[in-house]
Amino acid sequence: MENAEKPSISRKQAPYPLVFMRFRPAWAYIDGIREFGRFFCQTTFGTQELADRACVVLQETLENAVKYSSNSADSELELSIESDGSNIEFSVSSLPDASHLSSLREELNGIQTLDPEQAYLAAFIRASNEPEASARLGLARIRYEGGVELSMKEETGGRIRITATGKL
Amino acid sequence: MSQFSGVQVPKAESIAIQVTAPNQVKLSGTITQKDPAQDLAGFFKALHTAALADKLTEVRADVSGLTFVNSSAIRLFVDWATWVKNERGHRYTLRFVTSRNVTWQKTSFMALMSLAKDVLALEHVT
């Protein structure tokens, strides 16, 4: 892409998301939003590597959010992408089933005790040893392949926000 | 006739699958459905069983054209590697043909290698 066509990201924009979306938690939307994220990162930041990382982060965070969303009317997902010029932040807010919250918290705490590569390998070993259990590779994959750190914030009304932050 | 080449190929959304005698399966496209095991777990198991019946020494799984998959799909490759690893009798080498240009393949197949390096091989294409 020509530089003249590349949108500029300034620090002045940092408090405002570059992307903000709100949508029903439907699986059918994930492919389209992931591919938009790929296009957006490639176009805005000009690197294929970041575009690929964005795809992993978006696919896996949105899958988790959709899979475990409650059926209530206010369960829309919110996705934002922000950057301060040095880092990029992907944030997904959702209203999960209460039953999912403790396992998510436990999974996040577990993978953060290891470095990203070791945590991903440990998730492979667990999947291999527990063939009947669900894969649970997603969060470790986000950290390792997405090159981001993950955090979870519990918000009012039972909503949670998963934030993935990494270098541009 | 080889059992391997006679394995029924599933009709799966967004993915093209080709089985070629005597020992090659090629997958291309994307795998991002909610439960890819529904389409693919039985197929991979059938390939594994056929490879054992044919006493193959190697199965070539060419995934270089799989441009993106979700972690549920990666789980299916973990399962296949685990079946071969846990085989007590005849075993074959499961050789994944991967692309250097596809990010998920670089990270995930390196992790898979460390899980079962005695039965897996990686071959890189551009």
What's this, in brief?
The complex is a heterodimer of chains A (168) and B (126). Chain A has 168 residues and is an alpha+beta fold.
Descriptive account of the structure:
The complex is a heterodimer of chains A (168) and B (126). Chain A has 168 residues and is α+β, with helices and mostly antiparallel strands. Chain A has a single domain, classed as Histidine kinase-like ATPase, C-terminal domain (Heat Shock Protein 90, 2-Layer Sandwich), CATH 3.30.565. Helix content of chain A is 43%, strand content 20%. Chain A has a five-stranded antiparallel sheet with strand order 1-2-3-5-4, covered by helices on one side. In chain A, a hairpin with a 3-residue loop joins strand 2 (77-83) and strand 3. Chain B contains three helices and five strands. In chain B, helix 1 (37-53) packs parallel to helix 2 (71-86). The chains are: A alpha+beta (168), B alpha/beta (126). Chain A binds chain B through residues 27, 30-31, 34, 49, 52-53, 55-56, 59-60, 63, 67, 117, 120-121, 124-125, 127-128, 131, 135, 137-138, 141, 144-145, and chain B through 30, 32-34, 68, 70-72, 74-75, 78-79, 81-82, 85, 103-104, 107-108, 111-112, 114-116.
Largest sheet, strands/sense/barrel of chain B: 5 strands, mixed
The CATH homologous superfamily of chain B is named STAS domain
Strand order of the largest sheet of chain A: 1-2-3-5-4
CATH architecture of chain A: 2-Layer Sandwich
Q: Mind telling me which CATH architecture of chain B this is?
A: 2-Layer Sandwich
Shape of chain A: globular
Q: What is the percentage of strand-forming residues of chain A?
A: 15-25%
Tell me the radius of gyration of chain A.
16 Å
Distance between the termini of chain A: 18 Å
For the structure shown, list the relevant keywords:
heterodimer; A: 168 residues; alpha+beta; Heat Shock Protein 90; 43% helix; globular; B: 126 residues; alpha/beta; Transcription Regulator spoIIAA; 37% helix; 31% strand
